[in-house]
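INTERNAL AUDIT FORM
Audit reference: QA-55
Scope: verify that the stored structure record matches its stored sequence.
Auditor: D.O.
Record contents follow.
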Amino acid sequence: MDSSVVLVTGALTGIGRATAVAFAHEGARVVVSGRHDDEGQKLATELRNLGTEAEFVRTDVRHEEEVKNLVGLGKAKAAS
């Protein structure tokens, strides 16, 4: 995979986490989101340890402004 940016919501557990890890293994830059800061930072560190660029953004998808912030960050990463 090229240096695509992948944004994964609900990334802290289950399918979301597995998806984030799979994309990291493929070399994508990964932005993960969820509602728990500590777990999110741990996941971002785990992804970086796999050799990819990763960032956690605390986001509750029930709140539109938080989602807009998350998408904005994803767009900025893709543009860089």
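Auditor finding: record pair retrieved intact. The longest helix spans residues 64-79.
Action required: none
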